[in-house]
Amino acid sequence: MRGAGALAVWIIALFVTLIAVVCSINIHLQRSVEDKILSLNDSKNISAEAIVVLGAKVHEDGRPSLMLKDRLECAYDLYRQGVAKKIICSGDHGQEAYDETGNMKAYLVKKGIRPDDIFEDHAGFSTYDTVYRTKAIFGVNRACYVSQEYHLYRTLYISDELGQESFGVICDRQIYQGQSMRDVRELIARTKDFVKSKAKPHPKYLGEKIDISGSGSQTDD
Predict the structure, then answer these.
(1) Domain limits of the chain?
(2) How many whole angstroms separate alpha carbon 201 and alpha carbon 158?
(3) What CATH architecture does domain 2-219 belong to?
(4) pTM higher than the cut 0.85
(5) What is the pLDDT of residues 169-199, one digit of tens each?
(6) DSSP assignment, residue 150?
């Protein structure tokens, strides 16, 4: 019994330590970039080399999920404000049957943005991959990231760690179903990417560099 009791105490102590570590990392991560997170109105007089839309779920018929739709609408508004002349749609296009980036671009083109001004990053399989590739492949040294607020803290922290100047614009335009679970998962994701951004591994795919001063059509698939 004494052995079982000691093991229980050890497990509880380890669990408490892990929670403390996760909380500490999250607090540090949020505080370090909170001044870089802006509203749409606050971003009017700020410029970037590119507006980067982080991918999210796309339905089978090509419609963006509510979260992605709000990101795209925000990117459209930022483009019209003149924050940047180019947009990078970064997401998952690892399978022919599932194409986040192509549908993201189609949505923006339908709203009236020139196709040449929209680039597709087909290998944005994670937040880390998107940020890494935005700098390494597309050569963006000053980026405007567009996502929901809870996601922007991690995005901007990774950007800082990879030596990229950036700011984020909040696109929350409604209450999203299941957000409580996303917030919990984000605590773990922030901890993972905190470590990852220190180690700075290459993303899943790199590839040839893409000049965003040219036409976005070169990235169409």
Answers:
(1) 2-219
(2) 12
(3) 3-Layer(aba) Sandwich (3.40)
(4) yes
(5) 999 999 999 999 999 999 999 999 999 999 9
(6) H
